[in-house]
Input
Amino acid sequence: MGISLEMEALALTSEVPAAVEEQPKQDVLDKALTLEVPPAVEEQPKQDVLDKAPTSKVPPAVEEQPEQDVLDKGYIMRRYEIGPKLGEGGFGLVYAGTRREDGLKVAVKFSVKAPDMLYITVPGHPKRLPLEIGLTLMANKGSSAPEIIKLLDWQEDTDQFIMVMERPFPCMDLFSFMELHGGTLHERTARRIMWQVVRAANACCENGVFHRDIKLENLLVNPDTMEVKLIDFGCGTLMKKVAYKVFCGTREYFPPEFKFTGKYYAKPTTVWSLGILLFEMVCGYLPSAEDLFMTTANIWTSPGLSQKCCELICDCLQPKPKKRLALEKMHLHDWFKVQSRELRGHGLRHGENIRK
Output
């Protein structure tokens, strides 16, 4: 097969450099939230240390929130009614909410402020913003990113910050959507979802944002329309031309170059994570050592999948970053060359089976 010893090491090793900052799962802080929210909001996971990055020069994407005192702890509670918990992750707890003035359904995320939390400057906002807030605003620059969750409001106080985001209805994360339909997706459904994820990833990079944690759990899917939203910029950082040396994200999506060199670049890493994502959607599991051997040699196939789908997976899962498909060209791949109405359509055709 002619596969190099480098790939053999890639397939067999599970070691990563000590600098890895994997996204925490259930770690909690001793400090409780001070805002008067439902009793379940008591403790928050500790935020990982993110890479320090230069100040952004990208303008914000959504309307600036009304001026309010950052130490006014009652601001969010006065404007929004907080409902049941929707979920929790490495960086906070998320609750359903309703905007009192018009009944708009929202999601409200509470995150404890880490002592070394990073701030960035976003033009149009007089004060420096917590990194996650700033990145979410930047990613939504302009009107060309409907696949990225929108930040509607926020509040910062001495101990925590709160983000109010749009809440699509109905929706579920992609992992739950796949479980609901037997663990794998029909290739046609996967293509519709993947097209939107690629658009979201491109929009992030074009707007100066490196998400770093694109995965099943960070994608919301409307099961009726197949519309997708990329969420959770808690692992994100600003785009830069030089290599990153600390990885904040999910271990299963680490690019191989980081395992070998301790360095990685934004766009090739994003392409690798998109390849892992597509593999999971159509296969129902993460690629094995044998799978990675075959993707490197461009001979990987799977029963029931088209040749073009298999080729795209191989193009994304190349161990050498320079051999991967360029992120900017991904949407031009032959696999996506079907009628645009099928890619951007709303919902599955009557009787279409989601499962393979």
